[in-house]
Amino acid sequence: MHERKDFWDKNAGRYDRFMRNDRAAYEKMYGLIRPVVKAKTVLEVATGTGLIARSIVDAAAHIEATDASAKMILEAERGNQSAKLHFSVQDMFRLPYAQKSFEVVIASNALHIVPHPEKALQEIRRVLKDDGVLIAPTFTHAGNSISGKAKAFFMSMAGFPLHSRWTSEEYLRFLRQNGWAVQKSAVQKASFPLTYAEYTKSEGPDVVL
């Protein structure tokens, strides 16, 4: 955990520049997220520099955006203009919120970079209302092209904490195996294939966008 936090602390200042390559994919993702969070109480774990939180806060009732990296949170707070958005340093494996506190939880590009992602899902389940929605878009590196896999290799060599290399199908199956029902899913073109998905605690039909 400390190695992961140190990596993001060191790279907080350049994170937004790195993510510009995927601006188009993220804009599409914001469009998918806004209707889900409309007038809802939202928790975002692994918010990074707050790109998603700041882009959807106009639709939400309130957003608690958290990250394990204090320097990422400092970057996020610089651009915060909304009273509905609060940033704080938190460990996604030990969240300080009561059970069933949030109507929506967002974990974007987080589950593939942490050890034991199933434990993070357990904590998310605890703080999510029974009828709530988990939005968990994730880069699914294993489904990428040869050049993309080479890029992932060099990122790993540079210290990028990539713990899980899933294809889109493997990622969705992982969530199902951990007690989540996939309600909507779509694969978007980005630096790496970006599998957008919405999940609920209760079983229901899958809808592929």
TrEMBL record:
InterPro entries: Methyltransf_11, SAM-dependent_MTases_sf. The keyword Ribosomal protein does not apply. Keywords: Methyltransferase, Transferase. Residues 43-135 form the Methyltransferase type domain. CDD domains: AdoMet_MTases. One of its GO terms (molecular function) is S-adenosylmethionine-dependent methyltransferase activity. GO terms for biological process: methylation. It comes from the Bacteria. PANTHER family: METHYLTRANSFERASE (PTHR43591), RHODANESE DOMAIN-CONTAINING PROTEIN (PTHR43591:SF110). This is Methyltransferase type 11.
